[in-house]
Design a protein that fits this description.
Rossmann fold, GMP Synthetase, Chain A, domain 3, 2 domains, seven-stranded mixed β-sheet, five-stranded parallel β-sheet, 32% helix, binds coenzyme A, binds adenosine monophosphate
């Protein structure tokens, strides 16, 4: 007999429109759809065409009207400010409505873009939901990005307003966001009409007369704004993510499909029940934060935890266990890197013994490969299912997972289990032909993508097609390579482009190369992602200096590290580069980045048949040894 999972998967494949219409019926619509799926203009597909809804209404007001106004919606837990504060559905809705009113009063209306550059405080969540409430489109920019990155996003989405925190708090330092915002606006061609600045006590930012307004005073004097009906196909947000160049891609998310998919995932993937506490230990600047700190738990009627802290050092490696106990967390979602950090500090999980985790059911890991050692460590210590699942900014919700709410399947370490119902994943070779089970190939998803996934890139239909749909016509190219075994388990092995994953953060090595190349002494460069015990991968730069440069190499390397920090931001974690005489290339001039990465990681590699000069490879190996790379353990 087919398993529960097989049955649900088959139902979604057999009649996707019925499957998703059933899921959508759980939510509130001002007007239902004329068509569940509009497949009339491939490769573009639209879900719930003709419907009208409001995501904020579904996330907050709907629960209040159902009698759950007093239920906790959000718990702000901030070890860095020593604060814990709970907001009920009513309190959060009222705060959101006031902020939405303040935004309206400053001219923000449906369809306007609003950039949010904020620390992990409740006001960031309020800002996102306030946009949703009045039909404005938010674009959250992670605080670890530098002004230039923020400016690129300002120029691309042309926000009417920016909402920013005065500062963020990193262990041991206050990161002043407002001066970074000022610099970004100075660099950007597009100038936002106004900014709301949320002043935190650690740094009171000076405000620019006429442009900047104090968040708290604006909210104080505002009249609450009601929810505005929007089309299901109106964008809820734009989230920029690294592509293959230094220019980020504006992933668009529509209101209707997003709401339906996330709501479905809370029960079926995460096995949650309304009223339970769900914690995604990420940042609202990443897709995990959008989907699983803010929207999914609230849409489903769960309490979400907003944690402003780290897995270690705030104050110790028991921080996650403390939060789980204190707030009765049922499911935690984080990146494997967080568990590697905890394991490094507390290898025997001694701190875990201090806490009562009775309410805790499941740990979910995503954002990067979950290495089997870390998964086993978590399983052995937590004695709960540890679920690796795979997805990306573009999809907004899991593509592969062990769908605990449907049926807990046996775990295979190294695999995020099976394809989530709604996705039709195939493995194709470079010619677009299907490969045999167990053979590695390009991981693609047959179109149409299920609801919730990106319908396009912001103002860039051509870029959407070029980036994702052209290489394998009829399929969305995930950019990941891997295989599906005989049992239908998927294994994600590597990227097929230059994206690397640093501490679960997605970064483009191409973007870093552009920065290195801008240094006056650099003739040529390459950046590769090398293995790192804590962060999974870290970037490593190779630079060839211009002829005649005689300044000390150490000094140039320091300047390069500083330059990446200034131009991309500390989040790039670019800390090391090596000066080499030349870069290994194919005869046609293509830099052999993959081979360089293998040399650095002391992995076996095949001598590329088309290499220009094989001797360069041993030069590279020698240059890397002083940095501790290219050595067998
Ligand atoms: N604002 C400003 N700076 C920030 C920032 C923010 N919101 N977030 C990170 N940074 C800075 C850090 O301070 C660090 O700066 P440094 O080079 O001066 O030390 C740099 O960006 C790199 O940060 P990070 O990659 O987070 O490394 P870390 O060494 O500070 O911490 C971990 C390592 C593993 C503890 C951390 O990555 C972590 O908590 N990961 C949890 C998982 C996670 O959040 N995943 C996201 C996707 S699910
Ligand atoms: P992001 O868009 O930042 O969420 O990054 C998405 C990318 O991270 C994917 O395309 C994968 O390369 C990688 N990734 C995410 N989750 C996993 C996972 N569970 N296993 C392996 N790689 C993953």
């Amino acid at each position: 007999m087919a398993s529960q999972y097989d049955q649900v998967y088959a139902a979604a494949m057999a009649d996707p429109e019925k499957f998703w219409a059933d899921a959508a019926s759980q939510l509130h619509w001002y007007k239902t759809w004329d068509q569940v799926l509009d497949a009339g203009s491939p490769p573009f597909y639209r879900w719930f065409v003709g419907a009208e809804t409001n995501t904020c209404y579904n996330a907050l007001d709907r629960h209040i009207e159902a009698g759950h106004g007093d239920r906790a919606a959000l718990i702000y837990d901030s070890p860095v400010t020593d604060t814990i504060r709970t907001y009920s559905n009513t309190e959060l809705r009222d705060a959101v409505a006031k902020l939405a009113g303040a935004m309206k009063a400053r001219g923000v209306t449906k369809g306007d873009r609003v950039i949010i550059y904020m620390a992990m405080t409740p006001e960031a969540v309020m800002a996102m939901l306030a946009c949703a409430r009045i039909g404005a489109i938010h674009s959250v920019v992670f605080g670890g990005f530098a002004p230039r990155e923020l400016a690129t996003r300002i120029d691309d989405c042309k926000p009417k307003m920016v909402i920013a925190s005065s500062c963020g708090l990193e262990p041991g330092r206050v990161v002043e966001y407002k001066p970074l915002l000022d610099q970004a606006i100075a660099i950007a061609t597009h100038k936002p009409e106004c900014c709301f600045i949320f002043q935190r006590p650690m740094y009171q930012a000076p405000l620019q007369e006429g442009r900047d307004f104090d968040f708290a005073s604006e909210v104080e004097k505002a009249a609450p704004a009601d929810c505005v009906p929007v089309a299901a196909t109106d964008p809820l947000y734009i989230l920029y993510t690294s592509g293959t160049t230094g220019v980020p891609k504006g992933v668009v998310r529509h209101n209707g499909g997003h709401m339906v998919a996330l709501h479905w995932s809370m029960k079926n993937v995460y096995g949650m029940k309304p009223g339970e506490v769900y914690w995604a230990a990420s940042d609202v600047g990443w897709v995990v934060g959008h989907s699983y700190i803010v929207y999914a738990p609230l849409l489903y009627g769960c309490t979400t935890v907003l944690y402003e802290g780290k897995p270690v050092g705030t104050p110790d490696a028991g921080a996650y266990w403390r939060v789980i106990e204190q707030h009765k967390v049922a499911a935690l979602f984080t990146a494997p890197t967080a568990f590697r950090a905890i394991k490094k500090e507390d290898p025997k999980a001694e701190l875990l013994k201090k806490y009562d985790l009775t309410q805790f059911r499941t740990l979910f890991l995503a954002g990067e490969r979950a290495d089997p050692d870390t998964v086993r460590w978590a399983e052995d210590n937590l004695k709960r299912p540890v679920i690796d699942h795979w997805w990306q900014t573009e999809t907004g919700w899991p593509i592969a997972a062990n769908c605990t709410g449907i049926e807990l399947l046996p775990v295979k370490h190294g695999s995020p289990t099976k394809i989530v119902p709604g996705y039709d994943v195939r493995i194709l070779d470079d010619d677009g032909q299907p490969v045999k089970p167990g053979d590695i190939g390009n991981i693609v998803i047959k179109l149409p993508l299920p609801p919730g996934c990106l319908p396009t890139l912001w103002n860039n239909d051509e870029g959407f097609k070029k980036s994702y749909l052209t290489r394998f016509p009829g399929y969305y190219n995930t950019g990941d390579a891997g295989y599906i075994d005989e049992d239908g388990y998927i294994f994600i092995m590597s990227r097929t482009d230059d994206i690397i994953n640093v501490a679960g953060h997605r970064l483009s090595t191409g973007g870093m190369e552009e920065v290195l190349a801008s240094h006056p002494d650099v003739a040529e460069c390459a950046v590769v992602g090398v293995a790192d015990q804590l962060k999974g991968q870290v970037p490593l730069g190779f630079v060839v200096l211009k002829a005649g440069v005689s300044r000390p190499e150490d000094q140039i390397v320091q300047e390069l590290v500083q330059l990446v920090r200034e131009k991309i931001g500390p989040v790039a974690a670019f800390k090391q580069a090596v000066v080499v005489k030349r870069l290994p290339k194919t005869r046609s001039g293509k830099i052999l980045r993959g081979t360089m990465q293998k040399i650095a990681d002391a992995q076996e590699y095949r001598m590329p048949a088309t290499i220009d000069d094989p001797a360069i490879l041993s030069e590279i190996g020698e240059a890397l040894k002083p940095l501790g790379y290219a050595k067998r353990p």
